[in-house]
Design brief:
Blueprint lengths: L9 E5 L2 E8 L2 E9 L3 H14 L5 E8 L5 E5 L9 H11 L4 E8 L6 H18 L3 E5 L1 E8 L4 H11 L2 E6 L3 E8 L3 H11 L5 E4 L1
Antiparallel strand pairs: 1-7, 2-3, 3-6, 4-5, 4-6, 8-10, 8-11, 9-10
Helix pairs in contact: 2-3, 4-5
Amino acid sequence: MNETSKEIDFYSTIKGRHRGEVRIKKSRFIATAANVDSKADAMKFLEKVRLEFYDASHNCYAYRIGPGGLDFRAADDGEPAGSAGKPILYIIKKFGFSDIIVVVTRFFGGTKLGVGGLARAYSEAAGKVLAVCSKDIVHLTIPVKVFCTYQDVSAVKRLIAATAVQFDEHYADAVEFTARIHKSKVDSFTASITSATAGRAGTVIM
């Protein structure tokens, strides 16, 4: 599935793996969240959870991958349609995370909850685990090489320090910087380098 694409410079994911649990009318809902960077990675993690909880009633899940969570999926794993996967996905979106999978494992307690009750239970379990996750920022950058003479080092370095997510520098007969610039700022960055050095410095977008 795909959502509408838009230009972004960074997005939020989580660090590592986390777990939370809620109990509703004797049913256990165990939510496990993990950082993943592809659909294949998400499916491998899902299989690990299924093996761990091989005797569970259901292992429902949702994942979002990439900038803006454009690659996503939600699955009910035998629960009534729309009662599990979509609520989990909704909570992931509410927290603003991507590169993530949340698997909610249910051990049936003997009492049926109905579609509404299930949706609330899966949402609560997903929210509980995501609330304790450590946030990590993924920057979407493009490497830009900047070549300048020693005459322009100070001006160039000021612009790089103010704009780059990170950079490396190499000093020889001339000076070479490799700066990682947010995608939306590349054009304005290269223009600023040209302006600040009266065209003496060169840039190469890699």
